[in-house]
Amino acid sequence: MRAFSLVFLVVVVAALGVLAYENNFPTTLSAWQWSMSLPFPLVVAATYLLGMLTGSLLVSAVRRSWYRVAEMNRAA
């Protein structure tokens, strides 16, 4: 099963590498008076990483709240 997982991971990373290479065109990001031109794969990767960060922060906040409520119920 580990070998299958490794092969699957290599195939996915290779496909992402090919897509990043083929779609390497500049993308302009603009906000108010600010503007920046970045490669498209970098924009996609940054968006993905920011989504992972915000998702994990949300999950940890919900988990912390859940544990706090569970502790209050045990104490009562």
Strand order of the largest sheet: 1-2
The structural domain count equals: 1
Outline the biggest β-sheet: 2 strands, antiparallel
Strand content: 15-25%
What is the structural class?
alpha+beta
Distance between the termini: 47 Å
Based on CA atoms alone, the radius of gyration comes out at: 20 Å
Could you tell me the number of beta strands? 2
Shape: flat
Q: Which percent bin holds the helix content?
A: over 70%
Uncertain spans: none
Continuous helix count: 2
String of helices and strands: HEEH
Mean pLDDT over the full residue set: 88
Task: Give an overview in words.
Strand 1 and strand 2 form a beta hairpin. With 76 residues, this protein is of the alpha+beta class. The protein has one domain. The protein is flat, with a radius of gyration of 20 Å. The chain has a two-stranded antiparallel sheet. Helices cover 75% and strands 16% of the residues. It starts with a helix and ends with a helix.
